[in-house]
Amino acid sequence: MKTIEEVQQDILEEFSLYEDWMDKYAYLIELGNSVEPISAVEKNDQNLIKGCQSRVWLVAEKKEGHIYFRGESDAVIVKGLVALLLRVFSGRTPGEILHSQVHFIDDLGLTQHLSPTRSNGLLAMMKQIRLYAVAYDRLDN
Amino acid sequence: MKTIEEVQQDILEEFSLYEDWMDKYAYLIELGNSVEPISAVEKNDQNLIKGCQSRVWLVAEKKEGHIYFRGESDAVIVKGLVALLLRVFSGRTPGEILHSQVHFIDDLGLTQHLSPTRSNGLLAMMKQIRLYAVAYDRLDN
Amino acid sequence: MEYDVNKIRSYFPVLKQQVYGKPLVYFDNAASTQKPVQVLLKTGRLYTEFYGNIHRAAHYMADKTTDAFESVRDQVQQFIGAGSREEIIFTKGTTESANLVAASFGEQFISPGSEIIVSEMEHHSNMVPWQLNALKRGAKIVKLPMSRNGELQTSLLSELITSKTRLLAVTHVSNVLGTINPLAQIIDAAHRKNVPVFVDGAQAVQHIPVNVKALDADFYAFSAHKMYGPNGVGVLYGKRKWLEQMPPYQGGGEMISEVTFEKTTFSEIPFKFEAGTPNITGVIALGPAIALLQETGMEHIAAWEHQLLDYCTHQLKELEGLVIYGEASQKSGVISFNIDGIHPFDLGTMLDKTGIAVRTGHHCADPLMSYFNIPGTVRVSFGIYNTTEEIDRFIEALKRVVKMLK
Amino acid sequence: MEYDVNKIRSYFPVLKQQVYGKPLVYFDNAASTQKPVQVLLKTGRLYTEFYGNIHRAAHYMADKTTDAFESVRDQVQQFIGAGSREEIIFTKGTTESANLVAASFGEQFISPGSEIIVSEMEHHSNMVPWQLNALKRGAKIVKLPMSRNGELQTSLLSELITSKTRLLAVTHVSNVLGTINPLAQIIDAAHRKNVPVFVDGAQAVQHIPVNVKALDADFYAFSAHKMYGPNGVGVLYGKRKWLEQMPPYQGGGEMISEVTFEKTTFSEIPFKFEAGTPNITGVIALGPAIALLQETGMEHIAAWEHQLLDYCTHQLKELEGLVIYGEASQKSGVISFNIDGIHPFDLGTMLDKTGIAVRTGHHCADPLMSYFNIPGTVRVSFGIYNTTEEIDRFIEALKRVVKMLK
Ligand SMILES: Cc1ncc(COP(=O)(O)O)c(C=O)c1O
Ligand SMILES: Cc1ncc(COP(=O)(O)O)c(C=O)c1O
């Protein structure tokens, strides 16, 4: 399996194919549409991360030392970003997550989606992913 | 006796001798120093017109249908302005005062001393002069 | 008179900017308008020619600045047809104007059991101040409800206004629906029962002619940054009879007459309500913004923007699955809509990539969103510099992004 | 490093103005400073290149503006050494900052019988808010007295602070006397009895290095317009632990999380305290003002201005009948004085005619005037761009007008 850094590089390379912002977003939408929906039952308050404009749900499961994430959003662009985050983080060990540095969103020029004052749920989702890692890490030790 | 308008013209002419602002103010100070002081007894709260930075006292007396004003201030420049107002208004009938238009302060470029937000007492003094005129006018009729 | 939109556009250099390589179409005017060079030039004069703190000083720079500042008070008075300059209070915005009245009028007139009527279409800024205040004073907020088409149910007023009602708070123009409320009628109904009315004019003064005296409004508030003026400046108009009875809101410099450790006496209105150094350069730079509105003519502006509204509404209605919220008979240039199966955030984000700035979200009007049971809308809102060509570009872009998102 | 005052002066075109045909000498910096071109240029960019309402929008103009706005929050945090950006709240000025804390801290922590200690040398803005609040809540204002030389009698603190004391309000630097108060010592005395301290920094941040964390101040307030920045912008620093416990001050847009007619939940700090559209352009233009101070170096500025203070004090003392108010051992560049037998208003008015802008009056510090039993003073106050040559011209002019007035 590729490292978190390698996956980020892959993503950057894929996006570098698109010069135009419309095309980058078209690709994000495509990614968003390909995200496997989470079940209605899982779309509960506990898994909900509330943003100002859109909602994000995040489900985590641990199997054999690795955390598997699934997620969704009511906005397709946010869903595309969720897809990217899942690709980077799902299936990692808590240690890998805790020692990672996420830079690809900045590098893609999508920083505004992470701005704390935009609060569209993505930043909270990243925090939540780390919290899961911390929690599972503690459970292990 | 000259009319209110004529006295204003006189004042404007006198000041027109001075080109420099320092000289105009030197003349104002001279006028201020020449104002006859009012007695300590008359410097009471009733005659006091409070400004933000300086205080003005105004005393009015009526004799044979004419109002005679005396006034003073703790700041000599304000006293100079008071002297000019006394020269214009003292010895007039209530009707003359009420029908007059005071423009010489504006014309001299001293408007800032009359600005309501500067509230250095002069504007209040002008109002007070008019109020006396109104009051004596009523008493007459 | 012809409406010379090109001349107006020439005052707004920012309109020539490109975003993401596309020419900017700015349709987010209800959030904040762009600012003309006239306002910048006036600001520049205060940075290069004269500036000083106002009112209390005895020097040239301060005198000149004071004159410029106070003359804008006269200009505002005249612009909204207020009875006297002392009834014009400078605040930092509509929100602060509402908070000032809620706190200060509240302290004097609102007590346990009092009722405050607030309409269902209010911006949070004309809702939360009353809520907070009601909570503090044991008063109750009573809702003036809305109808499906975005009009207030004014016929209910005679029932809603009781002997306990102390104030009615309502917006002149809705920032989400565009509805122009029948203010004269609402105010009349309130006054018949001696209830004063606070009007949120944040979306009105820049779009339609406003005369507070003709309306007989008790309070009227608006923000400079929504009327092509500077940021950080708001206006509160209040009838003298209310302002004089109300205690000061904030304490500090400017608003006091005398201070001792034991007792403080306050200045007259308007200064009683202007504690601290005001936004001097901001207030002075509001002057040219008002001048621009007046030179263009509020009647002409209203007509022009109404034309844009009609033109855009007509084209939007052709689109499949598009729902417009707010179809009041009297509307200003604001259109809120959604498209079936597409999240407004996605629409807004994609439109942005085509150079078109619209707003998405709840527009600070949660109760209104609850009414329609939606998470938000896409909102386009027009200003004096917008054109039908821009609407064409918007519609075209909208069709394109809808195709991508569906 | 040399202090390059000519370079600094070149940033302030207004200093080249003439008044009454004489070159301007601006010695009214404590009232408000002039503004450098850097601040104007930044403002201009917001008028011509990018501008939008912040935080909630999803378009390019708004995103860019939001980034610029929020980066100034970081800059302010760093400038005053605050622990985190969330502890920086933007207000409209020092006065509002004090009112915010008085109302909001007051609501939570001040009750009948509480005591608030306020120093005798406070500006009305750090006095009246506490008075108004004490009156509302049945609390009492306790005076921290001053000595003849203009220093606070800090030795009395251990007595004055009782179990009833809820807060101590004190200025960092006096706007009349120039006294730099021994803040660390005052704060330490208060903290030993668990009393938080509100510091009025309006006359400090532009003159001396300030680090709120090193001082351990609980609240620290200042105004942009006194630090070469724009008008209508203030800062309130507050320790997180207090800000989080305090209820919101104003209600409206930005500061809420969710609103219904029944209940409203609020945002986190700092937004909880920033209701309504903030002074966007003002906050952003504060950035270059802070940058100028930092590039020049607060240590260098303090040294330069202290030199001006010494130079001017020395020459004033030579004048017959001249009394200086405030001779604290630690002083910043402010000198208040009177001349025997001459009214300060006359002095100020005449100095103005020679091109020299000073302030006269009570400087919004009535209690201090009562202390010295005077109606007012003449005040000269220095800024980063003032020079000893200007002081020479001032002294010469002063001698001339004194001769005229005596
Ligand atoms: C010491 C002090 N505190 C507070 C203030 C009030 O500041 P502002 O008027 O900007 O709110 C001033 C300025 O006048 C001051 O000098
Ligand atoms: C109807 C309405 N009221 C009040 C406000 C608040 O104005 P401000 O944020 O300028 O205080 C707005 C703007 O957002 C508005 O549209």
Short description:
The complex is a heterotetramer, with 2 copies of chain A (141 residues) and 2 copies of chain C (406 residues). Chain A has 6 helices and 3 strands. Chain A has 141 residues and is of the alpha+beta class.
Specify the overall morphology of chain C. Answer: globular
β-strand amount of chain A: 5-15%
Low-pLDDT segments of chain A:
none
CATH level 1 name of chain A: Alpha Beta
CATH fold field value of chain A: Sufe protein. Chain: A
Structural class of chain C, by secondary structure, is alpha/beta
CATH topology of the largest domain in chain C: Aspartate Aminotransferase, domain 2
Outline the structure in words.
The complex is a heterotetramer, with two copies of chain A (141 residues) and two copies of chain C (406 residues). Chain A is of the alpha+beta class and 141 residues long. Chain A has a single domain (4-140), classed as Sufe protein. Chain: A (Alpha-Beta Complex). In chain A, 49% of the residues lie in helices and 14% in strands. In chain A, a hairpin with a 2-residue loop joins strand 2 and strand 3 (66-73). Chain A is globular and about 45 Å long. Chain C has two domains: 5-30 and 297-405, Aspartate Aminotransferase, domain 1 (Alpha-Beta Complex), CATH 3.90.1150; 40-294, Type I PLP-dependent aspartate aminotransferase-like (Major domain) (Aspartate Aminotransferase, domain 2, 3-Layer(aba) Sandwich), CATH 3.40.640.10. Chain C contains 14 helices and 17 strands. Chain C has helices at 5-10, 37-48, 60-80, 94-109, 128-137, 157-160, 183-192, 212-215, 240-245, 280-296, 298-317, 344-353, 366-372, 388-405; strands at residues 18-19, 22-23, 25-26, 88-91, 115-119, 140-144, 165-171, 197-200, 219-223, 234-238, 256-259, 264-266, 322-325, 334-339, 356-357, 359-361, 377-381. The longest helix of chain C has 21 residues, at 60-80. The model of chain C has no long low-confidence stretch (mean pLDDT 95). At the B-C interface, loops of B face helix 3 of C. The complex binds pyridoxal-5'-phosphate (2 copies). One pyridoxal-5'-phosphate sits between chains C (30, 93-95, 123, 125-126, 171, 175, 200, 202-203, 223, 364) and D (253, 276-277).
